[in-house]
Write a structure and sequence with these properties.
The protein is mainly alpha-helical. The chain has one domain (7-85). The protein has 2 helices and no strands. The protein has helices spanning 7-27, 32-89. α1 (7-27) runs antiparallel to α2 (32-89). The protein is rod-shaped, with a radius of gyration of 28 Å.
Length: 93
């Protein structure tokens, strides 16, 4: 998972899984199993969404870095052209 899931989310997932398994043994296969399964699936879904957000933000950071690099190169080139054109246009100085 490459560090996209923080330790807090991992601990919460383990606790939720542990409580889900414990409820299976304590309550058995009753109607309450659906409630416990729903709670577990909501927790998993939130963790999966956090992982996807982390990956998406990583991709956006890479794209922004590429754009900023291109802009800085363009600014450097335009600054060099501006400095050079001023020297050529006014030969008296």
């Amino acid at each position: 998972m490459n560090g996209h899931i923080d330790i807090g989310s991992f601990i919460i997932a383990l606790i939720t899984l542990g409580l889900f398994v414990a409820s299976l043994f304590i309550k058995g296969l009753t109607h309450d199993l659906f409630l416990e399964t729903g709670v577990f699936l909501v927790s998993v879904k939130i963790i999966v969404m956090a992982y996807k957000n982390s990956v998406a933000v990583g991709h956006l950071d890479e794209k922004l870095d590429t754009i900023l690099t291109a802009l800085s190169k363009e600014n450097d080139q335009s600054a060099n052209m501006t400095d050079g054109s001023q020297d050529r246009s006014n030969p008296r100085e």
